[in-house]
Amino acid sequence: MAHPATPINPGPGGASAPPEAPPPVLEGASALLRERTRAAWLFLAPTLVVMVVVAGWPLARTFWFSFTDANLTDMAASQFVGLESLRQVIDDPDWWTTVWTTFRFAGVSVVLETVLGMIIALALNAKFGGRGILRAAVLVPWAIPTVVSAKMWAWMFNDIYGVVNAVLQSLGLISEPMAWTAEPGLAFGAVVAVDVWKTTPFMTLLILAALQMLPGDVYEAARIDGAGPIRAFFQVTLPMLKGPLMVAIIFRILDALRVFDVFFVLTGGGTETMPMAGYARQRMFEYQEIGVGSAAASLLFAIIALFTAVYMVVGRVKLGD
Amino acid sequence: MKKVLAGLVAAAALITPELAQAEKVVIACGSVGQEKELCTQGAQAWAKKSGHTVEIMSVPTDAGQQLAQFQQLLAAGSTDLDVVRIDVIWPGIVANYFIDLKPYFPEDVLKQHFQPIVKNNTVNGKLIAIPWFIEAGLLYYRKDLLEKHGQKPPTTWQELAQTAKTIVDAEKKAGNDKLVGFVFQGKSYEGLTCNALEWVDSFGGGTIVDPSGQVTINNPKAVEAIDFMASLVGNVVPKGVLSYEEEGARGAFQSGNAVFMRNWPYAWALANSKDSPIKGKVEVMALPKGGADGKATGALGGWQLGVSKFSAHPDVAADLVKYLAGPEEQKRRALVGAFNPTIMSLYKDEELLKANPFFGSLYDTFTNAVPRPTITGSKYNQVSTEFRNAVYSTLSGKGKAADNLKKVDAKLKSLGKNGKW
């Protein structure tokens, strides 16, 4: 219905051009849209302000500190040193040990959580009596704060009074009590075990929700075509679950890469059993080097951001729609 | 009625100035063993006497984590904390945040305390804290078990290992398979630095960094000391010590499951407390020497009380410090909790010596105690961490002491450039 004198597709500023271009009905709709957008921003404003204050400000401060040599013993004397603090972190082999530990931890625990979560979700998706209670019970470990569950496990892992050693010994699996949280090799396994125990319910929950969205007729078709349950799982369930699964995995990986509390409570010591966040804490508060610690924290942030970006591009994960 | 009211008003007017002066003082004291209980009792006694109120701040058991907590509060200029318990290694790190206590403590009061500690607490002429109690690492042993198996208290680490092995083997045969030989603080934290420094010093290997600031840790004696201790882990020493702090070690010893334990003096009162399974079966002595030509030593520890410079009422806070570090309270803490006084005259107190027979000999241990290298000032924690990480690696079987100490040597030398820390 465009007038021959006006361009079909008005460029920037075209909206405010001649009155005959946009019909009156559309104008009313866009006014409403603008009104709604404004209301949305108005309602969001408090949240945004709070976000900026509690998240944005500390983050910005951490970035700023990472360019200084700030020290807790005398904060007033801190000076701008450019990339010097960052260089100190990158040159420190201990930092790279913690990076390796963190990624190894994230890799192993997320794989285990995904596999276990899938198995439990499939089991809970089947129809049987008492399913509701079981679903609620599975969530219990997830509901306990990490610090509490880590401390609880620390007692269970204790070499003298720990129940883990008592059980394993009475089953004859080990001949003498093991120091689960003390030896670096065992401690890594212990930390992964606690994390898997705690976070598998989260995976279960997300996968279960996705499973319940799957249409039943596809399975019927698969059965008619002669596919057994295993084949149906790999050729029907898994491809359809891919989207939600990838999102669940990225959530878990992000969580695992910034891990701090499980390691701190269970091992709380040497570089061998320290995640990246533990390294940043050590530099900042034990060594008083706020500057270098902030550089480590910023680097941690950058590494996680980069990893997430790569994962989302490679895995074609869409969070938007 | 009017008269009664007038009387009440007058009475209120009399009381009010008193009330207006009543301040709330927040103190952070320790949380290992019965420290918190004792501190609360002492602080409450002061509150009753002075009319002020006291609140106890909760702190972590690990001294390193305590420091982190205080540093954050103090760096933010928080007024939430008035009196802080300061470790003997902290003065160089925290001096900026504490008031000078000299105006509150006359010379003759200071003279009553062990002078090296007063000197340790003085930074750039400023007295940042008053000594509260002093510690040194000690060796605890099961008198009953040693007698049962005809063993003498060991004078060297090698003898200790031999004695422990003999007893554990014999007890295992008799069906007691929970017993271990020797427990200490082996988790990678400040406690391990103390333990390892004792081993090194007892073998004659020096003090990591010498008083002039030169790094000395990479020497054959230190290597020998740490390799020897690592050789015990897994037989005489359970691998679990690698996760023990003070209370972990005490748990193993006090439940009757260890022959020897290295710990601070506080463990004495608890090991002999009413419900302790090993009550009356324990003896305590100086730590063994590292071989025939080594020396008996102990890491010098101790805690001081300082007043935050952000305190809203420093005078009241200093008064609390004066009370807690005074002779009466130090004596009470020694009687109830075996915390060693810093006031020298108390070591001649009959009542104290009866409750803690080992106090007399401790006086010598304190004079022979090895201080941690506080010459490193605000870098102390880094030095300590590098050192104990190397020890921890060696104990847990990752490399030999020679290689691990060589790495520490290089790191420390780059940290403290030519002894200028």
UniProtKB/TrEMBL annotation, chain A:
CDD domains: TM_PBP2
Keywords: Cell membrane, Membrane, Transmembrane, Transmembrane helix, Transport
Topological type in the membrane: Multi-pass membrane protein
Claim: Transmembrane helix is one of the keywords in the record: yes
Highest taxon of the lineage: Bacteria
Location of the region described as Disordered in the Swiss-Prot/TrEMBL record: 1-21
Domain ABC transmembrane type-1: 99-311
Transmembrane segments: 39-60, 103-124, 136-156, 292-314
Listed GO CC annotations: plasma membrane
Pfam families: BPD_transp_1
One GO process term, biological-process aspect: transmembrane transport
Principal subcellular localization: membrane
Subcellular location: Cell membrane
Family, similarity comment: Belongs to the binding-protein-dependent transport system permease family.
Protein name: Binding-protein-dependent transport protein, inner membrane component
Organism placement in taxonomy: Bacteria, Pseudomonadati, Myxococcota, Myxococcia, Myxococcales
TrEMBL record, chain B:
Protein name: Extracellular solute-binding protein, family 1
InterPro entries (alphabetical): Bact_solute-bd_prot1 (IPR050490), SBP (IPR006059)
Protein location: Periplasm
Signal sequence, renumbered to the chain: 1-22
Record keywords: Signal, Transport
Record-level GO cellular component terms: periplasmic space
Family recorded in the similarity comment: Belongs to the bacterial solute-binding protein 1 family.
Domain of life: Bacteria
SUPFAM superfamilies tied to this protein: Periplasmic binding protein-like II
